[in-house]
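#onboarding

Welcome to the new folks! Below is a worked example of what a typical request in this channel looks like: someone posts a single protein sequence, and someone else replies with the predicted structure as tokens. Don't worry about understanding the tokens yet, we'll cover that in week two.

Example request:
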Amino acid sequence: MDKVLIYIFLILLTTYRTCAQKELTAIVEYNRIINNTAGTSYATLYRLYCDTQSSFYERIGEAHRVTNKKQEGAELHGEMITERVIKSGLPHDYYYTNVKSGDIIFREAIVRNLFIVQDYIESISWQLHSENKKIGKYNCQKATTKYRGRKYTAWFTSEIPISHGPWKLRGLPGLILEVTEETGKYEFHATKINLKPDIKKIQNKLKKPDTKGIVKMDTYIEALRNKAKDERAMMIASMPRGAKLLENCDECPDPKNRSLELYND
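Example response:
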């Protein structure tokens, strides 16, 4: 009897080790696209490092003008990019999530000020729909939600059972490959997926970021609410004497639609 128990224990231990070794990890590249009212669009490359518990989503490149959203030859689908148009001297933004602790730690610049912020993983109420489409080689399902003041339509694939996506969007039964925001201002498109990444690289990226100088969400939200006013003051200060800032026109940016998270109330 004891030998049988030992044998069963060894089988279970081997199975556990095999499953642990096969924990799903991925590196996914996304283009975050911002569409402006004047008809111009800009894309910035981001990279998501993730396993089943944690993720680290960071900006990789500078913003470029999008000239053709149906780029040929991309692994999934992507954007034809030309001419770098926006360059920032500030450190790149990132978003770290840990499902076990429930934390989101992110770094983001608002009007040339850099914030490292302590957030939390909020349960996102996704509504699943019957519509399906193919993105690259992956079968995807439609889902919609409202999150942080915006409505989103997402396409996810259960063929990659990782509950992560671009930015802070997560919580679906599969990797999010595409997101569009209701007003049309923001889009996220996965362009490349690596399901066999270097494990050491993943482990290094999924370490908790340095939290020196971290601020609470209340401080960040106040900065977002003042963003349009502060940007206006900065632009006026940089203009030649006598010049006037064009405002309240059809092509002018909506001051209440300047950030992914909306706290205008």
